[in-house]
Amino acid sequence: MKKILLGAAMLLVLLTTSTAMAQRLDKMQWFNEPESWEIKSPSTFVMQVPAKTDYWRITHYGFTVDDAPFYYTTYGGEFEVKVKITGNYKTIYDQMGLMLRTDHKNWIKTGVEFVNGKQNVSTVVTHNTSDWSVVELNKAPKSVWIKAVRRLDAVEVFYSFDDKEYKVIRTCYLEDNCPVQVGIMGASPDGDGFEAIFENFKVTSLPDLRRLEWAKKQQ
């Protein structure tokens, strides 16, 4: 019995310890690789977002597009991902940010989107069909930090102007117990493309809530 309790206690310690890492940009892979992109430094990634590209499924427009650049790696379990984004937005719907994707019918993209001449924090959640939500920013910040937290079957989306104070803008469903492609994306559905700069892309592994609860019960 002592061994069981000791093992549960050690598991509890491991589960409550988060592991943060700056994802190596040179170890990621492309979905829809653009013509122009560059790893400027271990923490800085720049790409020229191609013209007339986007992610969307069916709702309102009746068409599906899945052709924008997405640079990603794959994670299982629960995690937090964040990135600093700076875009030279020019045309309505120019956008950049994070993407979490399990397959072509189930994905989340979130970041800054240029609408009616202003920057908006935008989130599109897709489970066969897409929805869209935006929060208009009163100012035009040079950069915005975007963060997403995956817990069980939910993802929470946040934004910040300083990487210190984060505001939540969305909680949405994403299937749990399955691998997730997580990374950075950009799109220019109506424009001729733009330069997108991503900095300090980082993934933090989080303790599994189900195992954490099990470990607590064993004490």
Note down, in words, how this protein is organized:
With 219 residues, the chain is mainly beta. It is built from 2 helices and 17 strands. Strands 1, 3, 4, 8, 13, 14, 15 and 17 form an 8-stranded antiparallel beta sheet that branches. The protein has a 7-stranded antiparallel beta sheet with strand order 2-7-16-9-10-11-12, with no helix packed on it. A two-stranded antiparallel ribbon has the order 5-6. The chain is globular, with a radius of gyration of 18 Å.
Write the layout of secondary structure elements.
Blueprint: H1 2-15, E1 19-22, E2 29-31, E3 37-41, E4 44-49, E5 55-57, E6 64-66, E7 70-75, E8 78-87, E9 95-103, E10 106-115, E11 118-127, E12 129-136, E13 144-151, E14 154-160, E15 166-173, E16 180-187, E17 194-206, H2 209-218
Antiparallel strand pairs: 1-17, 2-7, 3-4, 4-17, 5-6, 7-16, 8-13, 8-17, 9-10, 9-16, 10-11, 11-12, 13-14, 14-15
Helix pairs in contact: 1-2
